[in-house]
Design a protein that fits this description.
binds zinc ion, alpha+beta, two-stranded antiparallel sheet, 103 residues
Length: 103
């Protein structure tokens, strides 16, 4: 697993303890989704969320991790409640604080 900052390439921007916590939590969530209902894709409550695992020391931008492919990605512009991973192309929820206000 590549632990490099998606902005500047430095390993020191990534908060490894936040990342390992996130990966453990998302493994549990993935098992739950697999055992869960068939309509997981229709219900945003069953969709996993992007994690935030550090802030780049060079650019002060947030580093996100995809709950599906576990790639470290630059912070995305949310499309309402969700954003699409640039690595695997799947949609995940954006943490509430990062959501745009949708009227
Ligand atoms: Zn960085
Ligand atoms: Zn992904």
């Amino acid at each position: 697993m590549e632990l490099r900052c998606p902005y500047c390439g430095s390993r020191s921007c990534v908060n490894e303890s936040a990342l390992s916590l996130f990966l453990r939590a998302s493994e549990r969530a993935a098992r739950y989704v697999v055992k869960g209902r068939d309509d997981v894709d229709e219900d945003p409550n069953f969709r996993p969320s992007f994690g935030e695992v550090g802030i780049c020391k060079e650019t002060s931008k947030r580093i996100w991790v995809c709950p599906y492919c576990h790639s470290l990605i630059p912070e995305l512009e949310p499309d309402g409640m969700t954003a699409r991973c640039p690595e695997c192309g799947r949609e995940a929820n954006v943490a509430p604080s990062r959501r745009k206000i949708v009227c």
